[in-house]
Design brief:
Distance between the termini: 56 Å
Number of strands: 36
Number of helices: 0
Radius of gyration: 20 Å
Largest sheet: 11 strands, parallel
Shape: globular
Strand order of the largest sheet: 2-5-8-11-14-17-22-25-28-31-34
Amino acid sequence: VTSAASFLTAEANAISVIGYKNTANIGNPGISSTGAIAVQSAGGDVLFQSNGNVSQSGGLTLAANSTGHAQAVSYNTTSGSNTSSITIGAITSAGASASSPVNLSVLSRGTILVNSGISISNTGPLNVVMQSFDTANPGSGTAGNILLYGTGITTRGGYIILDGTGGTVSGSTLTPGTIVNGAVNMMATGFTLNTTTTNTTTLTSATTGGDISISASQSVGGSAYQQYLINPIYSGGTFNLTANASGGALYAQVFANHNNTSPIVAVGNINISTTSSAAALNDCPQYWTSAITSVSGSVSLTNSSTTPVSGIQILAPISAATGITINNNNFNGTGVYSTAAISTTSGAIT
């Protein structure tokens, strides 16, 4: 499917695919698209909307947005049921600007599966919001509300929000929701999040970019939030993670196989908060085996748990520019356990 029409004003759909079923038959199938989709002129919106599932695996390419207004790419199944999942393939934009961003929104009543890379070439920003409102996910193992495969998400200055808990989004700010099986899992080796303006992996105090915010939960096996093998994160702004483990969850946060190849690096502050009431917790709620670095800001690790294991284990270096705070509350086991360097250029280590 190709659209080459001109879109001089905002909120004009270049391509709309809408598939609804009657109320008695909400569910699958909804929309299935396997062919390539292209918007060849600047600024046209793209909409996939259904009360069934949406599967768009053929790839979507967008011409550079130079219109002076935002371009929206939306996938929405929030009017469906927990089987109304969304699966997307590669999404590539040729460019944008501060006055002409590309805004990708993936809002699912079921799960979200990303099978390929999402990126923008040349200049950005590409802003990405993915939210699952699935309250019926069984949650066992890797049955997360958001599963991320492919090469990663590159925004060139845009923000990334990944929410498996049915939270609230305002701009680039995420407030977690109450869904208890809302895991967010990076599942592919090499999957990378990068919000720096220049797509760099060598961040300095001069680097700019967007924030990254993630909210996840788990109550049946597995981990609320997982970085798989070689899943680095590079935030040109802040990095914020909230993860909750309850019931039979094994972790709140973990690196698969306890790998040391998935660093989290941010120019701004890094704020990580976990809670756990999981009786079956396999290890501590926070188990850090890859490095954490704030180039120009601070690092805050906070855990509140009632399980008889260590609260926060630190087996890889943590470094910051303006201070580090590590706080574990309500523990029955070791509070904070570290075998790695913890260092800050200025400010205190608490």
